[in-house]
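Would you be willing to look carefully at the protein I have copied below?

:::
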Amino acid sequence: MRAGPSNACDWASVQAASAESRRQVKMVVEEAAMREFKDGCVSLLVAHDLLTAASGVQEDIRLLISKTWGRTVRVEFVSERPATEPAKAGGAESGKAAPAGPTMTVANAAENPLIARAVELFGAKILGVYPRQK
C-alpha cells in the first residue's frame, strides 16, 4: 500500500493553515475536531452552537483542507446535542412557556452566517443585540 503525504490526516496542519483564513473559518477550524477521514470524506465534530456557522463556511473549510493536504476532500459536520439541551418536546413544562428561541448575544450573533456576511460586506461592528419589538 502506497503511503500518502505525511500530513494526509494531520488536523493540526489544517488548524495552522487556518491562521491565514477569514475569521469565521479560523474560529470553526480551531474549535472543530477531526472525527474521521474515510473515502475522501473528512468528518468534523463541531459544537452544537457552532453548527450553523460551520455550515456557512463549509466550502471554505473544504478548500482549506484540500489545499493543506494536497488532495480533494468532502467535508461533513457532526454535532452532538449538549447534555443540558433537552430534545424538543411538544409543549411547556410545569406550566412555564417554552422560550421563543435561543438567547442571542453579541458574541454568538457574529457566528450567524448571515450576520457575519453583513459585517464583512459593510465593515460593520455589532454593538448590541436586543429582542424584537412587538
